[in-house]
Amino acid sequence: MLSTMQDVPLTVTRILSHGMTIHGKSQVTTWTGESEPQRRSFAEIGARAAQLAHALRDELGVTGDQRVATLMWNNAEHVEAYFAIPSMGAVLHTLNLRLAPEQLVWVVAHADDQVVIVNGSLLPLLAPLLPHLPSLRHVVVTGPGDRSVLDGAAPRVHEYEELLAGRPTAYDWPDLDERQAAAMCYTSGTTGDPKGVVYSHRSIYLHSMQVNMTESMGLTDKDTSLVVVPQFHVNAWGLPHATFMTGVNMLMPDRFLQPAPLAEMIESERPTHAAAVPTIWQGLLAEVTAHPRDLSSMARVTIGGAACPPSLMEAYDKLGVRLCHAWGMTETSPLGTMANPPAGLTAEEEWPYRVTQGRFPAGVEARLVGPGGEHLPWDGESAGELEVRGSWIAGAYYGGADGEDLRPEDKFSEDGWLKTGDVGVISDEGFLTLTDRAKDVIKSGGEWISSVELENAIMAHPDVAEAAVVAVPDDKWGERPLATVVLKEGATADYAALKAFLARSVAKWQLPERWTIIPAVPKTSVGKFDKKVIRRQYADGELDVTRL
Amino acid sequence: MLSTMQDVPLTVTRILSHGMTIHGKSQVTTWTGESEPQRRSFAEIGARAAQLAHALRDELGVTGDQRVATLMWNNAEHVEAYFAIPSMGAVLHTLNLRLAPEQLVWVVAHADDQVVIVNGSLLPLLAPLLPHLPSLRHVVVTGPGDRSVLDGAAPRVHEYEELLAGRPTAYDWPDLDERQAAAMCYTSGTTGDPKGVVYSHRSIYLHSMQVNMTESMGLTDKDTSLVVVPQFHVNAWGLPHATFMTGVNMLMPDRFLQPAPLAEMIESERPTHAAAVPTIWQGLLAEVTAHPRDLSSMARVTIGGAACPPSLMEAYDKLGVRLCHAWGMTETSPLGTMANPPAGLTAEEEWPYRVTQGRFPAGVEARLVGPGGEHLPWDGESAGELEVRGSWIAGAYYGGADGEDLRPEDKFSEDGWLKTGDVGVISDEGFLTLTDRAKDVIKSGGEWISSVELENAIMAHPDVAEAAVVAVPDDKWGERPLATVVLKEGATADYAALKAFLARSVAKWQLPERWTIIPAVPKTSVGKFDKKVIRRQYADGELDVTRL
To answer: Which residues form the AMP-binding enzyme C-terminal domain (chains A, B) (predicted)?
Structure first.
């Protein structure tokens, strides 16, 4: 028996037309580094999105579901692209300007991008790559920046404002299937080629509703959200769409992501909400400690992308700014969990909930899978790999114009769930605590040993500066932990003392038999422990390992 | 190009499994009229819903998408039925216990209900009808009430608790299409047969997200919602589903809907939110004026079903309780608008927004259609019939087991929008103000005259007790207004004086030519002006009409 409800698709077009009418007065404010920021109403954004769509179709010949790329900071023009491109039936491809040049070349070719809209300030990054980007028929430039670097570039170059000028401010948007592609984003994995995640109109619409639910970010037209998280990073955590759905004002930093301008824009524009990764908040804290600024308007901050040090949350609590942990990834749109504590708790009682990754909304189903593939209980103790399912969760990667979608076994289960690659526990109240990346866990005789727990326990020793624990092959157990330790200057602890110290806080079967003292832990370009290097050094016999 | 997102259906089953796990500790509290209310956790509700589904399938033989009716107050057992029936693939049919007996017989037959779950206290209503309800194979009774009235009833009678006892507390819920029927509700129109609205899993899921969005009711597990609006009335405005989605505690009044017990349960259980029609809040206000009670926990109240007198909103403001207007109907699930004012206003500036019907969420598209079928601007002045479109809006009525869906021309536009039958204006900020029912508007020479505006203007005259204005046929203009006036005792105003008074506030072309003084305005059973009767009296020549 079918319902008698109307069959109305959930589309980005609908979010646009709602935002530009019902919330037509809400604003996108873009920082310019000059005395006055640029201010543009949702109604203006909507009219300009229509002009952009006309230009893309009539002038640049974009048809069907062709891909249009952006290489842009967070600003009003990027928001216009966010709505024009999917609403006309094309697919928005946000290019991550932090990708290595060869990766940028690879993803533009793989997505078969026809057009790129680029901020003038990013032309020095794009121009040298253009000869290697044959799919790009047009380059559209917006905002300040020296255009001369494009001289002699093969594709036709256009000025964004000239392209829009004089075109109709309304567009007869096509009817779209809600499962059609709206936007895509490539993950920058450390191994292999980048993987394309393709969001649908449906997934973006549902995710936007969730962002605005009171249990998540809970935003309305009474809010102004400072969107620091880049628009090329998982659609700026869905904020440009979510804000148009309920009329939330956006404050966009453009290229001014340094602590001083961020502090200045917060004090002068008084956003009520913000979203960014921990490093941004660490930099801002140092800035306002040195040069005090009033951040108190920003009552709520969504923090994700990496675990937030509790000390950072405490420091911001004192400034009247509450950091709220969220967990997600490119494959999860990204809202997977948010760490809003349950009701009726004191600040002290809330703390253990705030330092978790948070709780799943109804749209995200979760399960923990153990070393043997078994599903583990939510008891706060059983650690397994987190797998998730839901309407805004990827079930595959884009296979390219002529290829089939990719479903690598290490990323998707047989029944279609996403394997997150994160290992953790879930409490009986549904709060997730992540402990390791799956690839960093030591699989020892059918049990998992957390490398992070061992590292923290070793680093608690007063003589230890740093410690990294990695899995190494073991004939009997499959894998066993190898402890690599950096001692503080002048420290004298020996292996036996370290192991005895560790035995005080860790179960005996988890204690490493292999130890080595090294001068420094190898790091990645963003400062994380580079365990790949340690594993390779061990395999190549480069480490002086003591067994005990 | 399709997206790479997972294809996960939006189902009531998912809301249930989320609520009973992540929010397993949230509670449904049902008032019993005794010293202690009944308290049941979401986890228990979920376990009992599984038991109910087993009983319905294994014991009562409910299969496929058969209809299971409820004739119940708001209570925990009714919530169990809300989740068990749709999740097993069957269809929940909530019977409106205020329907006339012949209408109840009609809707049970039309829906082909197989089973009815009934509160013991409602058996005196059901028992005499049973001989006329041949589709009902089983009657399941729950809660207090004399069972002897069922003696000799043809269908098999079961005790709810006995039926559940000992059955498995988990159920292997089937995979369902999100467009499948989940629940149905008949509208009790004043003319013709009741019309069946069939909600889908998808419509209920999306509506639940909207209810929990901060711009709407904005509920979380920190809230307790007092659900006074009956579960047989548009799914209690979607609250049982919305609360399970985010863990909102529910306070259920069962049959204790009188002002005194409502005041008592608010003072002792301290709900933070409530939902009911204006008459409930009027009765409660009189009660707490006579017998003071602390209602201050209930900071937010959703009020709908009829326009709320501004005086009532002011009176509750003084008690620290904010009434927020919502508009909707059975055909709109029901959330159509909510009157949350825009940001940055003083209490005084908020007032003109609070007395509107409110603003549309992104999920509800709206348009105003004028007398000639033209679409009218949102200028706060152009009055037209409101038509709406969206995923939780009906596009047809149920045609019965063997019939096709019904799409009467006066209820659905050719392009599938719902004609609400309400006439009003929309401001440029998207706030809706309703003025008339479409059938009460006077269509005069291609323009519309608001009967409500004329009535209010006439009733402002000091000699007038009541006035009702109806459309009557007119050879030249199509329709013209007829003013029927009830004078106060001893008043002396004549027709000319009344017309002159009216001319001060109304455009000349809107002034009625036909006037009659009557002893009283005919009223419906719920106290509304019964304009059908006046139109018939006029047509039959029963009124003494003066033309001037």
So the answer is: 453-528
